[in-house]
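Lab notebook: predicted structure, single chain.

Context: the supervisor wants predicted structures on file for every construct in the current expression panel, including those that have not yet been purified. This is the next one on the list. No modifications to the sequence; it matches the entry in the shared construct table.
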Amino acid sequence: MNAKPKRRTVTDNGDTSEDLVLVTLIEIGEDLSPLVRHAFETGRPEPLLHQLRNVAKSKEAEIEELCKLHYEEFIVAVDELRGVLVDAEELKSELASDNMKLQEVGAALLSKLDHILESYATKKNIAEAIKMSKMCIQVIELCSRCNSNISEGRFYPALKSIELLERDYLSSIPVKALRVIVEDRIPAIKLHIKKKVCNEVNEWLVHIRTMEKDIGQAAIARTSSARQRDQEMQAYQKEVEERSISGFEDLAYSLDVEEGEEDSVLKFDLTPIYRAYHIHKCLGIQEQFREYYYNNRFLQLNSDLQISSTQSFLESHQTLLALVAGYFIVEDRVMRTGGGLLEANQLETMWETAVSKIISLLGEQFSYMDVAAHLLIVKDYVTLTGATLRQYGYEVSPLLEALDGTKDKYHKLLLEECQQQVSVAIANYTFEPMVLKKESDYHANVLAFQLQNSDIMPAFPYVAPFSTMVPETCRIIRSFIKNSVNYLSDGGCMNSFNLVRKYLDKILVEVLNVGILNTITDSSLSVSRAVQIAANVSVLERACDFFLKSTAHECRIPTRSIEQSRATLTATVALKTSRDAAYIGLLNLVNNKLDEFMSLTVNVNWTSDDVPQGGHEYMNEVIIYLDTLISTAQQILPLDALFKVGTGAFEHISNSIVGAFVSDSVKRFNANAVMAINNDLKILENFADERFHSTGLSEVYKEGSFRAHLIESRQLVNLLLSSQPENFMNPVIREKNYSTLEYKKVAVICDKFKDSSEGLFGSLSNRNTNQNSRKKSMDALKRRLRDFS
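Prediction complete. Output recorded below exactly as produced.
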């Protein structure tokens, strides 16, 4: 087996040189196509084919020798395998015999094994079925629970059940039919829940809209009560301060504790929208619900801001403002507790819209109003609404600024109304002093306006120095102050005191003062009426301090600050002017009446032969008239006014006497006439002194007197009755005794002075030395006066 065959190198006997050439070409790899072409072209392919077969045979022999050389061991192995195959056949036979025996032994066991395998398969199927059944039962239980929650209105647990189904069960439900049903029903259930909660929200929207009016009214009422308590507390504090300043230290203090609990009306239920918003969150469509809620509430706001066409704005404004207040109280709660349901910028947009429409509505409605009280009612409720909503953080300044812009119109209407009331009060009063029969009348008409002259309570019945017009006018002015302060306070105006004072001056000057001046200039005015008007004006002038203090009190400003700042009313000057005008009018009437009595050119005999005893009759009438005038004026006029009236009357009488001497109607007069005038003047001087003392003027005007205003007539009479009248030209004597007399008047009067001795029967009259000397002195005075002129 180890011998190696030798390589055969000789060719077969049939080989030729051509075969060798062909073999060589094949071995070197030359292309045989030229030989093949040449063989076919010469028509001798068979020799070539024979040569190729010889070459093939030679190659097969070489291959065979090569195989024998290299695969001899393989052949040996194959032989050995054949031996092994025999052994294997024997083993196979033995195995088959053993297998037969084993099959016979394990047949029973195999049968049992098949049974066990079948049981295991059944068990697996049963377990799978149980598992599927349990899952289906859980799905059905969740579905049942969801249905039960929906039927009971418990939508959030129902959605949680659906969420659990979708997350944990839907993709793994083993029963296709059940899975398809569940998949189809879940969107329907979500839509059903959405519709249900939206219906609840719609019902809540309707319900809360009906409650907004009550909510707003309750909140505004609480604000009003709080404002009232604040005003009472401020008034009490002011009283305490005033009493403390006055020295009264025994003060009682109390602490009022207000319950902080919210009114039951303000406890409204927001559960439906909370639940709806939460459910929409669970559904993943919270933005849709937020938009839905915002749009619906905005529509409700616009609807609430529409005024009723069947009611006047005065009747409907409280309902409208209460709706607005309730609306924004609810929305404030929604924004703070809704968990993002309503954003702050959305609420701000709603508020700005409401404020804009309210301002526009107020401007339009105020333009239609022509009664000041109506403006005050509306404005007061608007400010209460603003104060209420300010507590919830809303910016109400634009609303208050809009109200501040209406103050001029309000005061214009208020002035017109007060002007009518003052005109009626002036027209209706009787120009007689007011009689107060009891203490309550005194409090209501005197003390209430600080018109008393003394702190001592008078005896009743008490005759006041003023007529019924004064307290009636004071009530009108006080009401004006209160209304003005009410309109200016709690609004956009910060310095209400100065504004009220401006409007107070306006009503006092343009209404009251003008009305008084019209009465003073009335052609039908009598002396008694003029006296009463003068008295009334004096009292009203004094009442200006009360009006100013009342304004400060209403504006909650301490009285001492007004006193320290020395704040005054311009109307005081105007009323002083009117008072002076009343005095002038009174004096003119008195003077006219005195002129009626003192027609000296008629009532006096200027060339009388004797001197009448007791004075002329006209002087008695003058005395009676002056006594009545002074007595009446003493009761109702202040002392300074009484002094002016008295001095004016006596001065007019004096001027009338002097004017009678100067008058062209008196061509001449004699000494008897002068002596008669002197008697009249003495009576008048005595009366003047008596009344000056009896009226108490002497205690006030210690350096003055009524007599002093008769000085010109007295000096003239003294000059005419003087024994040395030419002393008038002596500067020292003239300054001492005749200072009020004018040269021209004295010259005219002296020219008219003709003594009785100068008459037709003057030579028969008794003459004496004194008369001659006086005559000579008078003649000398006349000459010197002519020379002086």
